[in-house]
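Feature request, filed as a ticket because there's no other form

It would be nice if the structure record came with a short human-readable summary line next to the tokens. Right now we just get the raw output. Example of a typical job, pasted below so the devs can see what we mean:
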Amino acid sequence: MRRTNLFIVGAVLVSGIGLATMTHVSATVEEAGHVEAGTIEPIDGTSLNRLTLTDRAAERVGLETAPIAEQQVSGKIQKTIPYSAVIYDADGGTWAYTTSEHLTFVRDEINVERIDGDTAYLSDGPAAGTEVVTVGAAELVGLERYKH
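Raw output as currently delivered:
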């Protein structure tokens, strides 16, 4: 399993773009103001990665999560997430970053049935109660895309 260490230089994070001034360096955290962001590990048998942030990186991003909820809608139980947790890929696919361990995230595919205000109603996705990233997801996309 390959593991990549990531570093933020200058710690400039731009929402919607990812890390604006990021480079991979082999410096220590104390050297020249470099801050280690975390690690990326490919998940065997998938095209997904497990992202693990440092406490400092999560703090700089302002990372927040919320649980997937269930609501009764038209006589059926439906999963909901804050719309801020929905990530769109270049092909129009929908994803959300989930977490089940402290500061460790995986991009999970979701199917959005509809959006009403700040709520996305899912026809498919992770189980109710699963924590999804509501603030900082764009930065996680930037980290994941920087994996090489």
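Something like this underneath would help us a lot:
The radius of gyration is 16 Å.
The longest strand covers residues 104-116.
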